[in-house]
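Record filed below.
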Amino acid sequence: MVKGAVEDMSPEGQGQVKTWTEPSTIKSKGLRIYNSLARAKVPFHASELVTWYICGPTVYDSSHVGHARNYVTFDILRRILEGFFKYHVHYVMNVTDVDDKIISKARRNYLLDQFLSTASHLNEVLSILDTAFEEEYSKQESKVKAAQKEFDKATSRRKDELSEKIKQEELKLQKIHELNALVKGREDKILANGGKAGIDMLLADGVSDILASYLDAKEGSTVTDLAIFRAHAAKYEKEFLEDMQSLGVKPPTVLARVTEYIDIIIAYVQKIIDQGFAYVANESVYFDTRNFQEAGHTYAKLNPWAVGSSELASESESNFDSREKHNSCDFALWKASKSGEPYWESPWGQGRPGWHIECSAMASHIIGRSVDIHSGGVDLQFPHHDNELAQAEAFYGCSQWVNYFLHSGHLAIEGLKMSKSLKNFITIREALQKYTARQLRFLFVNQAWDKPMNFSESVMSEAIAKERQFQNFFKIVKNVLRRMEIDGESYVKGFENVQKWGQEEEEFANLLAITTSQVRERLEDNFDTPGALQALLNLSSGVHSYLDKRAAGNLLPILVKEAAEYVTQILVIFGLSTANVSNEIGFGSELESRSGGIESLVAPYINAACSLRDEIRAAAKDDLSKAELISIADQFRDYKMVDLGVRIEDSSSGTVWELCDVDTLKNERSEKLRKTREATIKSLQLKIDQKSKDIENFQLASIDPKDCFQKQTTKYSKFDDRGLPTHDSEGKELSKKAMKDAEKLMKKAEIRHEKYKEKLAVQPSFIENLKSEVKDLQEKLQELETCQ
């Protein structure tokens, strides 16, 4: 091991020099990654077996898209290390299944269920809810004041960070006020509904969280059944793992559940005490940051500017009496239990692990005294990861436990930090109802892994557009190869044409060579997946260009196939394709996952073909029109084939098809139907407006021209034999200009009236017919607007 100095060019520490121990005994493969410990991009040195520890979920609630950003992002990086750089990765992830948040959430859910099962009247619930809102508002006001106080005494480095914190707390305060106003506004309707319906209405939109928080503050200590906590954690752990599977995240090599490592954690804490870096106080154990630093160690390597922040330092000390600490920066390794909390026996009394010690102990036990990569969200840098590092270095007596710390960038929802209290919380399951797993993965591949990102309609549209570009590329290539009878098992067919290369082939081959070089260059530069993705898209454009140039000439399909296979290979590495890269091009299909032999594989397609044949035969017997036959064909394309994962499109060279993800095709169909529906609604409204205007015009034309002016008694007083006005309302004779204008209007009215009479003579009920047509159109419009 040698000491390597890395200049810190971050805005916070420009000009400072940070030391970082660079593992140089193993030759780098050219990869450079951004290491939070060095605050710079550095060469990645590791043996063929890379040890990686990732902070897993605290399973107290449903996973959201912020979790997806973290776990999918690091899954992509892991796949690149394994699939592109050919490392073997030993991937360890923890599950925190005992924690303040889990304890609080489990207790609150239990107490809320108990309360609602015994509440006798809605008025009683409303009365208690009033008090709950008052207390919640007061509690949140205190948080705003505390954040402001922290801001006032903070250094300039942390002003921006704390300014955002104040904004978030103020927004939460506003949301509590708005929620209370919402309850007040629908109180009469709630009471009118009564019973369960009234309670469901009352506790909608997050109101139940306010009531549960109040109940927990009053009665939380009475919850003694420890199975309540375990059942809660088990439920959300299972949900998290299912979400990861849905997103295509590879399972970890080792899943470390905290409650299964309590004995390891206790022994780990005891050794830190024995080393002189922790102390026992009131049956709890605290890490001694002063002793640690006086022994020559560095505390808070990742975020030294956060040291002393009461808001951050107390993050893992919430709901816990920590007045026995020797120093405000000290943190709990073991927490003495209170009533209403799960606990384990220890040398210091009944208690449970602190948040930070769990990861240090389990990672040390599974991986050892040196971890190649440790990863997590950027918000975990301090205090969690800095405290992890301190604990492990105290345990081993070393100066560096982790070689590379990777932190994924923060994810915001429409510019705001995701929060249930702000109502911008999107669960993974909700996101997967709108987007496919591949589309979400495209989103993360298309973003720099270590930079902040915003989750919005626009960035998702960009990700989906990239997916469609690749879909179109694969579709065109596969249909070209299919027409030339070149597939994964064909060999001779690819060489039947003239094989001499022309300028087009030389340019194509050069582009492929450039692309492979660019992809390597981008991935070696801190896993630049957006850059690599763009290089692949440039190659796909080159393929389109080559096919266009060779449309009427000698096409060499082997070149096209090689380029498509390379694109597929990289997309497989990114986890964007499930294709078998040895013989398949594209995103892969569901066919691979089916079993049961050739019959079960082809049965759905044969059934669909037989069904189409039956419909055509029936249509022939009924002598259906050409339009009706086309409708049958389109229904087959848009429904039966889509539901089987087949996209069919019409082209100048005939029908083209491709196997595709079913959810993607269904989403495309839904979007097409939505646009068609919107266009139909717009067309109906235009027709209604036009016909309503026709009715209005015809009703105006029905008036006898003589009556047009004579009814305007407030404007005119005398008229001639034709009904033209001659004097104004005061008896004064009209000017020549006014008489001339009235004459023009009279002529228009006479012409309009004559046309009206002619129309009436031919079609006496035409106005009634128009009104009936408008009514029918309005009914169709209403039906479209109300249908789901």
